[in-house]
Design a protein that fits this description.
single chain; about 500 residues; mainly alpha; Growth Hormone, Chain: A; globular
């Protein structure tokens, strides 16, 4: 790709950020609308989980395919295709007559979404080649997540109360059309010099792992953990995962290239992404139910309560990008781990939901932590790797985010399934008023294990921030990059890896 002027690079960054805003705003707005959608479509808690996880599952399953396809057929072309499909899927979601149709149309959205964020990150990586400039660009990219989190609850609350939940999908249409037109004019085409071939077997195994595992977690509270269907889904997930690892190690051009994981920072970034987004998915899902079903707040008022968390994300994301550019990823990761752990512990031990002051402090701490974590994830995933592999590397990082969010919603939704349902039923007659102290106490008790899960996710981020950012870790990144340059097979032996 030819060297672009500074102005043109900024335009490319802005266009790529539009795609991130499109996808991120859709997710944050959707969370605020969940109670209204549940009432209108007569859905259960598990039904609402599926409106989120149907999207994130398909997204996670297709991200790596989209990244390798973009490297092969062209990143601009793939990006444009994703914009068209996502915008069309949004229009279909707004017309969904029932829950089943909505879940299906969310899957259409996800097919388009899989071609947006990882491909956009690959475009950014190939546009900003200087490490510090790239880190700052990624910080701006992370700031867009903060913008969407700040605007999403308010925009969603206003739309749900004034027009209805279907309108939350309408806002994607003008943004998608504008991004499509700007991409055609300003974004240059680029491809990997040696793109990999398609891996349909690996793709099917990824779908089997993610789909069966998530289905088992979401449906187990209703069907029972010992039911034959849940046991069969769990077995399918285990067998498919074992088969995926074995199969991918033997392929010359695998869907999941194991050479990336010879880099300790890359492996750490993958686990950090899963942990951070599992915490985020569970946090948003749990607090949406709490604020609207237990406290009896409207969609708009619930959005306003979530605003301190969102504003902290908005402020800290670009700050994190600058810190990564100036000092590396360790400090932002350590701070993120401490803040997210502290937030989880505040809720689990000190019942932060019992008072307004503690609730706000818990939201602020989580917002700071999540705002700091995104830039080091993305930067670590693509830094030190050959530019020709940027699409696949960023797709692995994006897949980790979506897998984490899917599992976070599934696991924490399962934990809340009993307690949240009873709290919602008891608080149904208290619309416009605070729910009874008994209902609030019941929800707090049922949510305590979920908050410990979120605290545990923060602790994982803290430990990996310490363990995967030192000199030894940087040596493993150089070794992983050398494996690509030398053309070593994906299933590199441990003996060679130690050389």
């Amino acid at each position: 790709m030819p060297e672009l002027s500074h102005r043109r690079r900024m335009l490319v960054l802005a266009i790529c950020c539009m795609s991130l805003l499109l996808v991120s705003l859709d997710n944050t707005v959707l969370n605020v609308a969940l109670p209204s959608m549940r009432s209108d479509l007569h859905a259960s808690v598990s039904g609402m989980q599926w409106t989120i996880d149907a999207y994130t599952l398909v997204l996670a399953a297709l991200l790596m395919l989209a990244g390798s396809t973009a490297d092969r057929v062209g990143r601009k072309r793939t990006f444009q295709t994703g914009l068209v499909i996502f915008t069309l899927g949004s229009a279909l979601c707004s017309l969904a007559p029932n829950l089943e149709a909505l879940v299906g149309f969310r899957m259409v959205q996800a097919i388009g979404g899989s071609m947006l964020n990882p491909v956009a990150m690959s475009i950014i990586t190939n546009t900003f080649t200087e490490p510090r400039e790239r880190a700052r660009a990624i910080g701006v990219w992370g700031g867009v997540v903060g913008i969407s989190m700040a605007a999403g609850p308010i925009v969603g609350g206003v739309l749900v109360e004034s027009v209805g939940w279907r309108s939350i999908f309408w806002i994607n249409l003008p943004v998608g059309i504008a991004a499509l037109a700007l991409t055609a004019r300003y974004v240059p085409e680029s491809r990997a010099p040696r793109p990999r071939r398609a891996d349909p077997v690996g793709q099917l195994l990824v779908i089997a792992v993610l789909g069966s595992l998530t289905y088992a977690i979401i449906e187990a509270p209703d069907r029972g953990w010992g039911s034959p269907l849940i046991a069969a889904c769990t077995a399918v997930a285990v067998v498919a995962l074992a088969g995926l690892i074995r199969y991918e190690r033997r392929r010359v051009e695998p869907l999941i290239d194991l050479r990336f994981f010879h880099s300790a920072p890359f492996s750490g970034a993958t686990v950090v992404a899963m942990s951070a987004f599992a915490a985020l998915g569970g946090f948003l899902f749990m607090n949406t139910l709490y604020l609207q079903d237990v406290r009896g707040l409207s969609a708009l008022h619930a959005g306003l309560w979530m605003l301190p968390m969102a504003l902290m994300c908005f402020v800290c994301a670009p700050l994190s990008g600058r810190l990564v550019g100036a000092r590396g990823p360790r400090l932002p990761l350590l701070l993120a781990g401490v803040m997210m752990t502290a937030s989880g512990v505040l809720f689990a031990v000190f019942d932060a939901q019992s008072t307004n002051a503690l609730l706000l402090i818990g939201y602020v701490l989580f917002g700071i932590g999540f705002g700091l974590v995104n830039a080091p994830i993305t930067n670590t995933a693509v830094s030190g790797m050959p530019r020709s592999q940027a699409g696949v590397a960023s797709a692995v990082a994006s897949t980790s985010r979506q897998v984490g969010q899917s599992l976070g919603v599934a696991v924490i939704g399962a934990v809340l399934a009993g307690g949240a349902a009873s709290a919602a039923g008891a608080g149904a007659g208290a619309a416009g008023h605070a729910a009874s102290a008994g209902v609030a106490a019941a929800f707090i008790d049922s949510a305590r294990p979920a908050w410990w899960i979120i605290a545990g996710c923060g602790a994982v981020i803290l430990l990996l921030g310490l363990g995967t950012t030192g000199r030894w870790a940087q040596r493993t990144t150089r070794h992983a990059a050398a494996l690509f340059e030398e053309g070593a097979p994906s299933g590199q032996t441990s003996a060679t890896a130690k050389a």
